[in-house]
Amino acid sequence: MTNKKAKTGNFFCHIYLIILSLIAFFPLIWVLLCSVKSSGDMTANPTRFLPVKLTLENFSHVINDLKFAANIGNSVIIALSTTCIAIIISSMAAYGIVRFFPKLGSIMSKALVTTYMFPPILLAIPYSLVMAKLGLMNTRVGLVIVYLSFSVPYAVWMLVGFFKTVPLGIEESARVDGANKFQTFSRIVLPLVMPGIVATAIYTFINAWNEFLYSLILINSTDKMTVSVALKSLQGSEILNWGDMMAASALVVVPSVLFFMFIQNKIAGGMTDGAVK
User: Fold this and answer.
1) What is the rounded radius of gyration, in angstroms, for the C-alpha atoms of the chain?
2) What is the domain extent for residue 13?
């Protein structure tokens, strides 16, 4: 009787989760279906779920005519640069906090997180003035520097928890075998905390990829525009082409969703390991 109740409960739980999954995926499915509809199909019956005729003209127009591929390339370059630099700086900073300045480092790591208490719009004018004086307005380098000011504190705070899980005895054994501090850090410690580094890198990349405010303020050239600003600019046109909007949205969202599905296990594993202190 107990097994029967358990099976019934599991059945309804699965049905409930399937319904929630369909509700969550419906906007993405709607975007994909609308992106392959023709302009006439979108105008004649906007609420039609399935397209009358499949077409890729929206994707062709967005990529070839609107140069959306260049915007995607800008976002990839900026997000990857931000992620690589942030991980290099934050991994060394987090290791130094854990091993060399444990008491002061704990206070520093908490102080770094307080930077997220300030709303981004509050720092928009100071950042603009600083970038203008440095001659970095309308440059990818300036945008990467601004992103690093937010990414590095958060990455340091996350990686401190991962480095605390590394036993000190492993590092002492490496030092006995003749490894110096840098070799111990690069060859012994980093491989042990690699799940945490991967999880932190992914979150850093996603935040840089989706950022809109500073990209809008600091970049004013179309050829240097990121995907978030380029996607918003489509709404500002006199005549909004919903086919182009859906195609551009699919180009931005679908790769991120697929990438996140492939690496979600590493994210979950990394966050679990970092929670054990």
Assistant:
1) 24
2) 2-35
**pLDDT tens, position by position, 22-66:** 888 888 888 888 888 877 777 777 677 777 778 888 888 888 877
Average pLDDT over residues 102-130: 77
Say yes or no: 28 and 159 in one domain: no
Mean pLDDT across 13-28: 86
Do 129 and 15 share a structural domain?
no
Q: Is residue 131 in some structural domain?
A: yes
Residue 181 to residue 186: CA distance in whole angstroms:
9
Based on the fold, state whether residues 20 and 77 are members of the same structural domain: no
Count the alpha carbons within 13 Å of 258 in the hemisphere toward its beta carbon. Answer: 6
Whole-model pTM over 0.85: no
Question: What are all long-range contacts of 265-270, with beta carbons under 8 Å and residues at least 24 apart?
Answer: 266/195, 266/198, 266/199, 266/202, 267/198, 267/199, 267/202, 267/203, 269/195, 269/199, 270/162, 270/195, 270/196, 270/197, 270/198, 270/199, 270/200
Residue 65 lies in a domain: no
